[in-house]
Amino acid sequence: MKRTTICISAVTLLAQASLGAIEFGLPASLATPMRPSGIASGDFNADGIPDLAIATDLVDKIDVFLGTGAGAFGPSTPIFTGAGTGPDSLRAVDIDADGDLDLAVVLKNTNTLRIYTNPAGAFTAGQSIALGSNPRSLIAVDLNADSTPDFATANRDSNSLSVVFNTAGVLGAAVSVPVGGEPRGVGAGDFNSDGIMDLVASDRDSRSVKVFAGNGAGAYALSATLPTNLLVRPDGVIGVDIDGDGDDDIASTVSDPAFNAVALYTNNAGVLSGPVFAFVSGQNPSELAAADLDADGDADIAVSNSDSNTVSIMENLGGTFIESEALAAGTRPGALSLADLDANGSTDIAVTNTDSNSTTIWLNAGAAGPCNAADLAEPFGSLDFTDVTAFLTAFGAMDPSADLSMPFGQFDFSDVVAFLGAFAAGCP
Q1: Pairing status of strand 208-214 against strand 198-203
Q2: Is the peptide bond before 135 cis (omega within 30 degrees of 0)?
Q3: What does the buried/exposed string (b/e) look like for 282-305 if buried means 16 or more CB atoms within 10 Å of the residue's CB?
Q4: What string of pLDDT tens digits covers the 428 residues of the chain?
Q5: How many CB atoms lie within 10 A of CB 80?
Q6: For residues 294 and 21, what is the distance between their CA atoms, to the nearest angstrom?
């Protein structure tokens, strides 16, 4: 490659940096039966349109809302779980490897994990597995590297996790993992980089997050106790790569009346450190979920604030999280689903509202990649001085992203002119 040396004595470009890359449309409210809790999304009838499943505990059932396209949903079809069972946390996964999505639901009043298999779009009750007392948070993840989804729950009243392994579609008896006082949430990640998924639990009474290293054969050993602080208690918890370095970090909601945040624990070669707090504007943050909401390649976080009836959107700016928006939800929002509900390639948000008997849906209106050749730095969708810096860095390194003008392969003033032209044109 050839580069012509260019001296730019001054570049004066006035731009306003913004967090506008994450943008959602107006909320839509989906009426649900009383006290909706768990939520899961997926194409349940194989028609190419995303659907929703929502657990309600009065009457005790799962309601399946088939999508009609463009993020809209038709009337529900109930799956009754039994009187007094109390369906709660819900996951949609292919349990039996037959190519369609099944449902797994926690029945909190009977301390049970119930499976509903999906032969050709019609759900049928399958196995029921005994869990610890008052199970709530449910995750579905391959815990023993056999390419089938396993399950784990946080059991509030037995101070334990229950781990249920799946062998070719058949679930084994639950393995109990002692945690501590009132675990509210459970998550998973390979925190020690040994190729085997580990577990993380929020220990509410000890004001800590605990990590349990798995051996892939059903045994878990406490490997780290990560404090929040003396003021706040943890609730939801997930494993997620928050800093883009390829290993799994941890995020947990924490709160007291005057302190509401996401606690972030970063993983450096198997050593977890933190917390660093990303504050939310809402009260009592509970559930959280992660996805790339602005299509910039890193994981953002959505948080349901149950006492302020909002969902906080925490934008990831290179491992630092800032609340870019607080979306108005229904009364007492809880479980979140982050999925492409309108099948347009971007991630949307749905949250169940326990006390207003509804689910609020926001379609993603702002997730996009670079808007033109000058949009080289996040947040994408806006042009500012960070894009200028990114161009100059790429130009100096002879990176192809700065090779904007013919003859390609030669870095010269024509590339600078092309960049300035694209920058001046702005984003549509």
Answers
A1: antiparallel
A2: no
A3: bbbbbbbbbbebbbbebbbbbbbb
A4: 444 444 333 333 333 333 346 899 999 999 998 999 999 999 999 999 999 999 998 899 999 999 999 999 999 999 999 999 999 999 999 999 999 999 999 999 999 999 999 987 789 999 999 999 999 999 999 999 999 999 999 999 999 999 999 999 999 999 999 998 899 999 999 999 999 999 999 999 999 999 999 998 889 999 999 999 888 999 999 999 999 999 999 999 999 989 999 999 999 999 999 999 999 999 999 999 999 999 888 999 999 999 999 999 999 999 999 999 999 999 999 999 999 999 988 999 999 999 999 999 999 997 555 778 888 887 666 788 889 999 999 898 888 888 888 877 788 889 999 999 999 988 86
A5: 12
A6: 6
**Which residue type, as a one-letter code, is found at position 81?**
T
- As a whole number of angstroms, the distance between CA 154 and CA 133 comes to 9
How far does the chain reach from its first CA to its final CA, in angstroms? 33
Contact 240, 249 (CB under 8 A): yes
DSSP conformation class of 402: G
∠ Cα 214 220 222 (to 5°): 105
Helix, strand, coil proportions of the chain in percent (round to 5)?
5, 50, 45
363 touches 348 (CB < 8 A): yes
DSSP 140-179: EE-SSSSSS-EEEEEETTTTEEEEE-EETTEE-PPEEEE-
How far apart CA 104 and CA 117 sit, in angstroms, is 9
| DSSP at 35 | E
Q: Which of 88, 31, 90 is nearest to 360 (CA)?
A: 31
- Cβ proximity of 151 and 142 under 8 Å: no
Residue tagged 């995020």 (tokens): 251
Q: In terms of Cα–Cα distance, which of 275, 255, 248 is closest to 263?
A: 275
With 0-12 / 13-18 / 19 or more C-beta atoms within 10 angstroms meaning exposed / middle / buried, residue 392 is middle
Token reading at 413:
């003033």
Cross-strand bridge partners of residue 323: 314
- Tokens 């190519």 found at: 99
Sheet order of strands, 358-362 included? 28-31, 358-362, 348-353, 333-339
Structure tokens at 142: 């391959």
**C-alpha to C-alpha distance for 395 and 401, rounded to whole angstroms:** 8
Neighbours of 3 (CB within 10 A): 16
- Cα–Cα distance, 161 to 199 (Å, whole number): 9
Q: How many residues does the chain have?
A: 428
